Every structure is written in structure tokens, then in C-alpha cells.
Prior knowledge:
By secondary structure, the chain is α/β, with parallel strands linked by helices. Helix content is 39%, strand content 20%. It contains 13 helices and 16 strands. The chain has helices at 18-27, 42-48, 109-124, 131-142, 149-167, 171-174, 193-205, 219-232, 248-260, 277-290, 304-313, 323-340, 354-367, and strands spanning 53-70, 75-88, 93-98, 181-183, 186-188, 210-214, 237-241, 267-269, 295-297, 318-322, 344-348, 372-374, 387-388, 391-393, 396-398, 407-408. The strands form 4 sheets. It has an 8-stranded parallel beta sheet. A 3-stranded antiparallel beta sheet has the order 1-2-3. It starts with 17 loop residues before the first helix and ends in an 8-residue tail after the last strand. The relative contact order is 0.15.
Amino acid sequence: MVPSSLFSPSSTVKIKNPISQSIKSCMATTPPAVQLSTSFGFKSLTETFTIDVHKAEGRPLNVPLISPFTIASSRLDKVENVAIRVELNNGCVGWGETPILPCVTAEDQPLALAKAAEACQFLKRSRGKTLGQVLSEINQIILPGHSFASVRAGVEMALIDAVANSIGLPLWKLFGGFSNEITTDITIPIVSPTEAAELASKYNRQGFKILKLKVGKNLTSDIQVLQAIRTVHPDCLFILDANEGYNSEEAIQVLEKLHEMEVTPILFEQPVHRDDWEGLGYVSEVARNKYRVSVAADESCRSLEDVKKIAKDNLADVINIKLAKVGVLGALEIIDLARASGLDLMIGGMVETRLAMGFAGNLAAGLGCFKFIDLDTPILLAEDPVLEGYKVSGPVYKFSNARGHGGFLHWDDTWW
Length: 416
């Protein structure tokens, strides 16, 4: 089901024949002359837009990293994701991306490609169904649950992007139109203190004010890295991300050490193992009451049921939304529940190109409800395969009035 409270349109859209209008939209060089408010309304679109897919396909998306990306639970030497392209019969095309991150997503690239192919075949058989019906069947039947959530997210992104192209609307407006820009943090992976200081100095020059520091493999080294960063970027704000690497006592010890250094992180992300609910609640209580530090649930939040538990038992202050972790529809449901429960929101990613980050960024900008934004991974890539899309100025991403998320790949028969 599409969440009911997030996307109530502020006014109606006068399109008597959405399909014929869509054909004109994708054939024209300028957006169609339809009467659009600041938001079409995603919920309305799911109920009214009829799907007719001409082509759908997934292909490998391999991109080198500037340097290895190491976190407490895994190490990534290169990006081996899956790109999804969906073309409607009206000629409009949408793009999505499935990230592959060992120990975090459940797929390797060959399996992700196989599951994407199954979903693409389903899309081509879905003629005549509404967007909402198709998205619901993808979520409940074709790619249910957490195991293939990243594939589901890639397919959902591509389909929604194609539909947004059909109605001539940018995604940030489709998702509410709150803003057309966001400001992200930047991540420093697990590296030596010297390397961390070099990265912090570089990011300081580029205008980044919030550094997200990966910790959790070695408590002593983590403190040394924090001290090195503080020397070269004394005014930066810190997010600590342990990626399940600490036990609860180690997590509290880190906060104590930082308190002695007169450093207060603005956020402590996933300090303990995702199934250690008691430890998560304990760290959150101490961090909140003794150090005034918020704790975010990331790996512990993989479903709507997880959010219900976190809210009911007061286990964390912030929910980290990742489309690859729960899918697009799943993310919207979690956002709805988290806001109703008084939890703050963060949006993040795996290690993705500007395809996935463009979709997530448009969502974040349009909704305007995220306290923490962590959509920096394209900056960590050695190459940018994505054409057009959002513009980057240091930590600021600006989204245009281009249809959909605006990004695409060079895609032809020689692309393999």
C-alpha cells in the first residue's frame, strides 16, 4: 500500500488523458503545457497513472572507487552495482540503480541481475495496471522482504522516474516540492589517522561542515583518528557510524573519551549489532541523557515492524532511511510511521552513483523532513558514469526542473 498521509496533493492536475499527454511530453523538447501545481501528489499518481512498459532491462554498473571503502562490517574495492532502465510505450524512460554491498545487501551482482530480469519481465506483463498496483505487486510478490530490497528499490526508482518523465514533473516536486536542494555530509571510511586528517583537510577546503566518520573496528584507533581530524578541521561537526562494530560498553566508552576531548557528536549511528535491541536501547539512553547525543538505528531498521519496535521501546532517536534497504514504497511507509512516532529522520545510501543518489536526493528535497542527509557516495567514486542529473557544489546538491531525476546512462548494444 502507498502511504496515505505523505502525499496528499495540494491541488488537482487538469489532464484529461494522461497517456496521450505523456506521449507529447516525451516527444517534445519542452515540458507539456499542462496546469501543474507545485506537487502533483505521488499518492494520486499511483492511483491514476496506467502502466504500459515497452522495454525493461538491468545491466552491470561497474565503477572504480578513488580508494577502498572500509567500514566495520565490510570492505569495498570497487562498485559492482546494477543499473535498471525502464522505457514506457510512450517513449519515456526511467533509470534506477541497485547497489551491491557485501554483508549489507543480500545479493551479489549475478544474483541481482537475475532478480532484476525477473522483475523487468513482470513489468512488461503489467500493461493496464495502475502504478500503485504494479508497485504493490513488486513489493509483495515479485521481490518481497529484505533479501532483495536493493533490487526492488532499483526497479521502483526506474519505474517511478519513467512515470515522472511522462507527466513532465521533476521528482522533487512529485514528492512534495519542499525544496530543490539538499546539503550532505561527507564520509571518512576506516583509515589511518594520517589519511583521515588528509581527507578532513580536503573536505574542509571543499566546504563540508559535517564529517561522517566510520568507526567500530578498533576503539583506540577510532579515538586517534578523531583527534587527528579535530586538529585539521576543528570546527567540523561529527557523525559517528559504527556499523554494528561495538558492543554497548565500547560505545559508551567512545562517548566518554569524546566528552573528555570536549567533542560532542551530532549523531551516533548504529553503535551495536542490529539484533542487540537491549544494547541499542542502553546506548541510546546514556547518550541521550548523559551526553546529549542522538542515536540512529540503521542496520536495526530493515522493516516497518522494526520501526514500530524502536518507537514503542524508545530504542533510538533517529531512523536512517536507505532506499536500497527497504525499497521506495517501504521507505515511504517508514517515513510516515517515524514522523507520527516523533522520531527524527536521516537519509543515506550504500555505495551508489548519481542515479540512485539523484532519486534519493530528490525524495529528500521534496519531502523536506530529514534532519540528517548522508548522500555523498558518488563523491567517493573515481568516475561519474551518469549524464546530466543534479548539480554538485561541494556539499550542496541542486535539482533542476528536468523531468524525473534527470540523470541517465549511455546505453546501447555496445554498452556491455
